[in-house]
Specification:
Helices cover 28% and strands 13% of the residues. The chain contains 5 helices and 11 strands, in the order ββββαββααββαββαβ. The strands form 4 sheets. It has a 5-stranded mixed sheet with strand order 8-7-11-9-10, sandwiched between helices. A two-stranded antiparallel sheet has the order 1-2.
Length: 319
């Protein structure tokens, strides 16, 4: 009696496979043009992500539009996985927690760092709080001694006082001179004084420098000086014209650049480093926001001063 070959049975003891759906659901059609054969074990191209039969499985066989992309990705992945991060050391990483008792390297891939605004030092997370690194007893890095700052303030205020006194005396002398001419020399002196003023104005306009794009009717011509008591300038004096609509702050920046005076007004910091504009004829410091044409007239003088502002007395600018 012949024996029957063994058959695999499912859970119900049946000797066949229960196939669900259509036969097309088992495999996939080759995406190669003019092929489209149904393959029960299709191949997927890792470069273009297409599905192909046995005959067209290679990139060359199906003319892959992204030929070699899979190999390049694999090579790049292998190269990156072979590179191990180097261990941080003080030979190539010089930032260490500023606490004297701590040797932790900060600002690495594993350990972040914290900058203390008060003492201007960098710490690890353990010593980031002010009480943890005794911040109140530390001298801020980069801070200058208080006596030097005070000396700069005193020098600036002294220069401002001198300028105010000089401006007042200048106005008195000019007025006395004008009154003397008007009282003793008659009407002819007025025309003579007017001619002198006109000649001085014409000379100023002829020699003054400025942006050529400023319209003639919008120009105000000024004498500009840098206070020798508070600033260092390559060119102490100059003659310039500006647009009447420009603010005093803009004029200050341009004047400082022309006279080559260090200008740190836009970098923050204390008032002892900032420049201000003193209007001689007006006898006062000008505000940065006011227009130069409203405060000054052609033939006037402005002086650049440093260290005359004060955070404790902001009304000095309005004097």
């Amino acid at each position: 009696m012949a024996s029957t070959p063994p058959t695999a049975s499912n859970a119900n003891g049946e000797s066949y496979t229960d196939m669900k759906g259509d036969v097309d659901a088992i495999g996939s059609h080759c995406q190669m043009a003019y092929c489209h054969v149904l393959d029960f074990l299709p191949f997927r191209c890792e470069s273009c992500k297409g599905t192909f039969c046995l005959d067209h499985r290679t990139e060359y066989a199906h003319k892959c539009p992204k030929e070699g992309e899979w190999a390049r990705r694999r090579a790049a992945l292998n190269n990156s996985s072979n590179k191990l991060p180097s261990k941080p050391s003080l030979y190539d990483h010089d930032r260490q927690c500023a606490n004297p008792t701590c040797k932790t390297l900060i600002y690495t891939s594993l350990v972040t760092g914290v900058h203390c605004q008060r003492c201007n030092r960098h710490y690890c997370l353990k010593h980031r709080m002010e009480e943890d690194h005794d911040c109140k007893n530390l001298k801020p890095i980069g801070a200058r001694p208080t006596n030097i700052i005070q000396q700069q303030k005193d020098r600036g205020m002294s220069a401002l006082a001198k300028l105010k006194l000089w401006a007042e005396e200048k106005k008195k002398k000019d007025q006395e001179k004008q009154n003397k001419k008007s009282g003793f020399l008659g009407l002819g002196s007025k025309s003579s004084a007017a001619k002198e003023a006109l000649a001085a104005a014409n000379e100023l306009k002829r020699t003054a420098k400025g942006e050529a794009s400023v319209p003639q009717d919008k120009r105000v011509y000024l004498y500009v000086e840098a206070s020798a008591d508070t600033t260092k300038a390559k060119y102490p004096t100059g003659k310039f014209f500006y647009n009447k609509e420009w603010t005093v702050g803009r004029v200050l920046d341009m004047a400082a650049k022309a006279l080559q005076v260090q200008n740190v007004n836009n970098r923050g910091g204390g008032e002892e480093e900032k420049l201000r504009v003193f209007h001689v004829e007006g006898g006062r410091l000008l505000k940065f926001s006011e227009k130069i044409g409203e405060a000054c007239q052609t033939g006037n003088m402005i002086v650049l001063l440093r260290g005359v502002g004060s955070g404790e007395a902001p009304d000095l600018i309005d004097l």
